[in-house]
## 1
Amino acid sequence: MMGAVRAPVVTLWLILSSGCTLRGTDYLQSGIGCVPPLADCDGDGSCETNLADTAAHCGACGYACDGISCKDGSCLLDTLEGMLVWQIDIDDQHAYLTCEPPRIAYVPLNGGGHWDNFHVQLSAGLFGIYVDDAFVWWVSQAFDAMDQQFPALFRKPRGAAGADAEEKWRGAAMTEVVAGGVTGSGVTIAWSYGSDLVISEVAGALKAELPMSRAVATGEPSVTGLSTNPQFDILWATFDGDLTRWPLGVDLATGRERPFDVVFADVNEAYFVEFGGGEMPPAPNGRLGRIGWENPPQGPVPAEELVTDLAEPVALVLDNSHVYFSESSIESDVPGSIKRFDRASSTVETLARAESPDDVVGDLDMHGETLAWWVLRAGETPVVEVWKRSKNAYTLPP
């Protein structure tokens, strides 16, 4: 049997320098590696797997779509027709989405099923959602015995069916409720409604009411992003341009261009995205930024702009090595995308891209290796696609 043919170094250099490309198998046998999306997933020394459309190896070797389609290295989990989606949060089994008409839909991450109702809201006022190891949390409106509505923090065991397992804790009495956001750190839950912020300690077993809830801020402009950490700190962004930290109530950054989300990286470091926009005609001018401060912070600190000219970014998540963020492209005439920023090298790579500039890429979340997000497809009837992808997947061309 004839052995593998290895291209001489000079011949290989001539081919590469001429601008020609070798097939994936030739690249691997030449010691260069496979050309994405081709990969050697069975370890036989050839680039036999196309990560772009192989359901068992979608985006990365061993990352499976489990019975659902793989397209461009991402798994299409499900399609929601006739609904709009606001936020998404995931655990190891499901993606939970807050929708309009008001409901929480949950979609299996591992294929084999379609979306179902986790919670149905009879009236408006459902936006933020957060999933921890045991519960799904959300902020919505509720009604008392006098049929007066008030904001409430809800929780329900993950994967539970029906409303019997739901618990709620009342916020301040209001006649009109603006749905808010919610996030947590494992021992605390930070939640907002309208212009009010509340922090609640939730460690321990189920109780009739939260061990402690206290108002953090009232009368704030519209809160667009929330983050908390185990030290009971809260960091929030407002659409008028401030990034503020509690318990001292110190503005860490002011005058930003519509910050939309913010996430703690450490007790004295955070990343944020700002929507930008406002230009006519619309042009991508959003940003990914970073702020660091002394503990305790004394006041506004310079913000480091890491990536500029983004198409209206709206959400971010991070791990020890990267920041992952979504470009919504709500206003810009470019396709929205999911990108990652390398915290060490400052390089930016594209993991997924919408098919059309008219599509809107929305919120995203991460659990383990999985990134999940939604895309609103352009058309007369709302159609929302829910996607997942390995955070270690191959990257797309710029």
## 2
Amino acid sequence: MYTNSLLIILTTFIGDCEEIRKIYSVLERFSDVRRPGAYLVDTFPELASFPLFDLISPWRRVGNEYHRKDYEIYKEFWDYMVKEIKEGKAQHSFGKEFVQSDYKALGIDDVQAAYIWYNFHPEHQLISSGAMIEAGSETTSAMLNNALIGLLSNPAAMDAAHEELDRVIGDERTPTFDDEKDLPYMRAIIKVQSPISLPELMSRKFFDGDP
């Protein structure tokens, strides 16, 4: 949650910031499609191969529209950095180094490059990787919300998690990383919060071979 706390400090200090509002609009759209059960195609991926399914579900249209909106935001920041570099005004940053690198030699096109990096609020000379803002702002809370919804909907799973924690950890201390190997059930609960498309990856195969 460090990045989230940092962002709160920055936004409080900066005040009204259109660039940050744009970033949060990306997060809102991400949360919309990240919500379990939002689209049937997440549960049955094979539906994506049937054109008729697009007539009854807006998933592809919504996805294309979200991509267009997000790309416009990322591209705007990317173009600004390119302009600053050409004019010799760009400060040292990850973004500057990335724009000046031979990223196309790595198979990264301009669209992918715009998604990898962007900067915000040039007036206050704040330059940051997009992942720094997004990773600590909405993704953590969204995963916690999904975990709570899943556990409250499955009391047996919550009881099993409690039993494992009580047996391994007890009530005299907090967990440590050394306890991870002894908490397979808790690890499973945590892992199913991570994928973007939860139902598609919630299978026994997902956990096999991952100690």
## 3
Amino acid sequence: MREPVLREVRNAAGEVTSVVTRNSYGCQVLNSAVALFVDVDLPDQKPKSGGLFGSLFGRRTAEPEDPAKAAIAKATAWAHSHPGWNWRIYRTKAGLRLLATHGLFDPADPVCERVFAAVDADPLYRKLCQTQKCFRARLTPKPWRCKLPHAPARWPFENAAEEHAFGNWDAKYHTACVIKATCLLLDKGSGEVHEELREIVKLHDQTTRATSPGFELASSINWNSRPNRMTRSIVANHFSTETGPPDVAHYRWAIRRRYPWLGNRSRSPLLAVCRPTRMADGSTR
């Protein structure tokens, strides 16, 4: 594995069962040969359309269906059909993270593939488990979700300058991670945890802040993504980032009219940056 090892977890016999590494993004990742993690991606929530007449006459659209409910139901159904099975279920920015805590698993065991299929695990995650012969779970947020750029260099560093640049970036990254959670615990099932998994569960929950009260998921806008690069260029062409728009209300109205494909979405990144900013004197801009 071409990632630096930051920490090891050993069993009672002194064997290494899990390691924490740093991936190419600069995030800490838990790699385990015994703890079955499952990554489930969910589609974006989209409100049900009120139709043409609904939009014309101002009819409210129905509340969007939460795709997490269906995914949790699949995981629960698997547990019910396999007595003794226990899931810890976490909410991530992109979906769900499942952790089987009742026993130990080998990534090469055919039962793992059956589990992946039953709960619709992310295809890329399934492939990684097969290739790397371990289960992986990211412990810290992706940098852009903490409003940070990508790491300036990757390990192994080619020279001292790269290592120094990464060290400076890493210090800012850890500071930004302090107030962000990578995932949030939704359900711990029966609460059963295999003796050999207790330290792994503790490490995972503490580092991700999954069970820490008051933390929110890291989920800031990724301005480097393909759709948001266009949004960013539109914003740059309309006003200076130093002065802001002269009239926020009029600006938002103009954006909705000129770019309906962006402006009609209440959480559009374009409109997000156009929201009034409250200044120290109480005024907004």
## 4
Amino acid sequence: MLNKKQPKQVNYDDFCDLNVIDINQHKSIITPEIAKSMLERNTKNFRKIKESSIRNYARDMESGNWSLSHQGISFDKDGVLHDGQNRLYACIKSGVPFETLVFKNCDGKLSFNVDVGPRRNVADWLRQNGYKNCTQLASALKLYYAVKHEKEPHSVRLTPNEQITILEENPRIVDFFNYCKILDGAVRPSCPAVVLYVSVMENGTPENIADDFVDTFYTGSMFGDPRFSLREAISYRRQKLRKMEVFPVKYELAMTIKCWNAFKAGVPLSKKQVNWNDRQQFPRIK
């Protein structure tokens, strides 16, 4: 292991000199005990804690995905905590120390300039790293997680770090997603991309069968063909939606799985048969 110098572990009182006027920063390792001490100074922060953020941060800390950034823990000139309460609660929840910058002697109006911009998400990271169709690709990563863990897609809450880890462990999912982009309009590309990726890469289906499924999705499918039935069923259900409604992805995913399984088995499937509802068992990818 590299002999890397570790930042000094400090408590708030160890480094805060209230006589200093300028803002000072200190790189520190915050342990759960120090986090509790800092939260005792959270006396003027009337923002509610965000349980979902705390859970997400805690998972990143537990998995080792939390990393040092420019966004630190800040205190004003009176030693009152102004920014960082959710990260501190996450540290306590996870029981894992984390490295951060700590700022002291900040202006009391600091809160008005914090968290005022759009929140970054994994699509922004994908865009910065040269990927295309980043919002849909990010959705595919969450959908893959939902399939692998048998969860409702709408209930999946992943941190950007968790989504990036999925991508790093499954790099070819990008190839499948890009290939399925030609199906956009008939079906969300993320649905067939995840279905084909799992079937080919994890279930051992020959890749040429997946190629045929996509290449002739429009031109080679006719009445009775599962792909024709999928197109018709999704189109019909989308037309039935009220204004501003969106066809839930779990239905589209389930219908895509049924379509793929029938196509792979070489059996016909009607529009009625390809439909899926909550009373039915969620299909498994073959």
